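User: Teach me something about this protein's shape.
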Amino acid sequence: MTDVQSQLVSAAREYATDLFMNKVSKSVIYHNLEHTQGVVLACEEMAGHYQLNPEDHTALSIAAWFHDTGFSSGDPKGHEAVSSRLATTFLKQQNAEPAIIQKVNSCIEATRMPQSPTTLIEQILCDADLFHLGTSEFKVKNELLRKELAELTHKNISKKKWRKMNITFLDTHEYFTDYGRRKLQPVKEEQLADLKNKNPHEKKKVKEKSEEILITVAEEIKKDSEIKKKKEKENQTERGISTVFRIMASNQANLSHMADNKAHIMISVNSIILSVVIALVSKRLDEHPILAIPTITLIIVCVSTMIFSILATRPNITKGTFTRDEIQQKKTNLLFFGNFHSMTLPDYDWAMKELLEDRNYLYGSMIKDTYFLGVVLAKKYRLLRISYNIFMYGLIVAMLIFGIALAYEALFVTTVVQAMPVAKP
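Assistant: First, the predicted structure itself:
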């Protein structure tokens, strides 16, 4: 599988696990998380045997996690259709390829009784779903299934009737894959023969043994569940930390990009204003010398604005070197290019391996990187704010001066005209 496909399968595992832990009724004691995990393991075993291509392997794994999630609806009838809908919704949210969505749905639908697989991955999932028929776990899981059916249907199923139902089912069932027929079918035939040849004494003996096994299995399941919860909690913590750093880095990169765009706008706008002022207004200063003051004011405002905008985007490169002592004392942040760009590849390779082997050093470097990015970002926005303030207030002042100058000139011209003697005819 590719990294993207592995992440998709991991997300499916987390989603399905959450459904089984929080949505599926506790009365579902067979089609539960433990059963699903067993099906996934069986699928992985057979996928390795058949050396599936990455896409089929991905679709099979996701279908295995989702094939019984339909029990979360509370109605076991038609749970395959609900499982397909849940899988489809999840995969669309993850932007999965349509081909994978179609294969996952086909696999889940193939498990509907009577099973009807057509492709290899559908056959693998169907055989994995009934993998226990050909293993030593058959009796224990079969008893769990009987109790689950009795609980869900609110009908007591006698052991005699249940035995007959199992004989009929095992007689008609066949594994679809060569792997299942070779490895699981012989054991299943032994289970069938044992069911057909049981006597009362053996029943009692099997019952006692089954109860002992059930108790042992229940204890093991409880122990495994506690271990899994602990590991899941640790994994969730790791994923949570990674998510926090990823979101912060993304937000800071977006803010830095926004600051650069704003600075670019300021530089472009003021460049245009300067060009217009120099090209048009300066030529008329001989005719209108009173416009010199507002023109100079506008030029100063534009130049000052551009200077602070350029300062906001001006890069700053550090020396780009470090020593081995600095790495061993965890003083250098290797996640910032400015600290290593002048170093040789062997030195950088050694330093990065030291960083990756030390969890505290790695997290410390990520924290430092986030902090100093924030410091740089704050400086950018501070300079950018000064630039915008100069432009805004300076433009207002320049326009007022222009207005005063034009009004004064107009008043002066009017006064001169009125003072001129009127020629008599």
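Now, about its shape. Residues 291 and 406 are 8 Å apart (CA to CA). The chain has a mean pLDDT of 82. If you'd like, I can walk through any region in more detail.
User: That's plenty for now, thanks!
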